[in-house]
Amino acid sequence: MTSTAQPPQSAARTAHPEHLGHVIFIAAAAAMGGFLFGYDSAVINGAVEAIRHRYDVGSAALAQVIAIALIGCAIGAATAGRIADRIGRIRCMQISAVLFTVSAVGSALPFALYDLAFWRVIGGFAIGMASVIGPAYIAEVAPAAYRGRLGSFQQAAIVIGIAISQLVNWGILNAAGGDQRGKVMGLEAWQVMLGVMVVPAVLYGLLSFAIPESPRFLVSAGRHERAREVLREVEGDKIDLDARVVEIEQAMKREHKSVFKDLLGGTFFFKPIVWIGIGLSVFQQFVGINVAFYYSSTLWQSVGVDPTDSFLYSFTTSIINIIGTVIAMIFVDRIGRRPLALIGSVGMVVGLALEAWAFSFDLVDGKLPATQGWVALIAAHVFVLFFALSWGVVVWVFLGEMFPNKLRAAALGVAAAAQWIANWAITASFPSLADWNLSMTYVIYTVFAALSIPFVLKFVKETKGKTLEEMG
Asked: How crowded is residue 470: how many other Cβ atoms within 10 Å of its Cβ?
């Protein structure tokens, strides 16, 4: 039986029912940055082959145009925190929305390959900002009782953004008669695909005007009265607002501002725990997950699948990604992070190995043999499912929990940077590797998935049920 009485401390942390809907709206609006993150990351999938033909470029140059957005991502992620601390979380979101909009228009109307690359860097910078600001803002605004569930909005928005981008691409391709360079609204289909991102970008910007600034930033800026108003909005008026403001002030004073030099030490430059975080980030990318979202339609077309069908398969893969993410959200606190990571690794090895086997067969009339074609398609979905229900979510949970308090911010920054670099390496290398030997490319990804198993068993400790203070 559950008691209805709550101690004052608990009451101060719980949004009252009449405020919960408003809090959900605030978190969902902030998570629109995650939607744009996912949408922009995957929308390029529909334009790869058209860009290759339009500008008559080889695989290596094409890969750089696709991957260059990740350079912008790294810069945006590295600078977003400082920008947000200086001008506020909401202004940071608005800057990100403007950059998304400009990038979408520029990418849809490029003069040449070089300025398309430039617009992708701008969009990447916006992605990097959104990837940092969204989760930070939600964590600062959400009442503690709902923080975990509201925090998951960001990841859910990312995978929904990926899926919607593939569905929109498929619809535009059908409108263009199955030709990526066919005309739609006076432009080539691939240009419309990239330009459509204006719609969610503008929506993100408009929503940012409808949500309050973070109480934490308001307190840091000395705007205590406005901080009390926001706290009343999200936590109700039954709490001691003055006590909450004082609590936020004291927490900020106690925080250790970790810097890069705090990470140094041990045998190999960084402290061992930092290397474990870097390892988790690198393995997450080196299994080749972003190939499934950046190049999947190109991949299927390379083995003889009709362009329209290849876009449909890209969409179904994105739906599987959403299902896997929901599974992870349900089980990550029930069975633990390590078991989920190990289950995912085993499933990824099976899926990737089957893809490598299927792609090892010679094409017949430009297509894989029927059996191998079906195996490749099913295995690709299996791989994405097991990634999404494990490493896609678990790595971020680990990175948020595993570092000691005095290292957390700086160590998380290094691990996130390693993730962007690994993502760039896989994205930039895939077209050339696929031209060399598609089957062996998937063998390489399979090896990394297999190596992740002993890595987790030997080096990664379970963080389920432990407080952040217990991490050291």
From this structure: 10
Residue type, 355: E
Residue 204 belongs to domain spanning: 13-211
Question: 112: phi > 0 → left, psi -120 to 50 → alpha, else beta; which?
Answer: beta
In this structure, the answer to whether residues 183 and 121 fall within a common structural domain is: yes
CA-wise closest residue to 150 among 324, 252, 22? 22
At 196 the three-state DSSP class reads coil
Alpha-carbon gap, residue 62 to 55, rounded angstroms: 9
Q: What is the pTM of this model?
A: 0.78
Coil, strand or helix at 89: helix
Lowest mean pLDDT among 185-194, 206-215, 302-311: 302-311
Summarize pLDDT for 143-166 with one digit per residue, the tens: 766 766 777 787 788 889 988 998
Residue type at position 218: L
Number of domains in the chain: 2
Contact present, 211 and 150 (Cβ < 8 Å): no
CATH number at residue 175: 1.20.1250.20
Tokens of 22: 């408003």
pLDDT score of 184 more than 50: yes
- d(C-alpha 204, C-alpha 201), whole Å: 5
Is there a single domain that holds both residue 325 and residue 431?
yes
Distance CA 349, CA 339 (A): 16
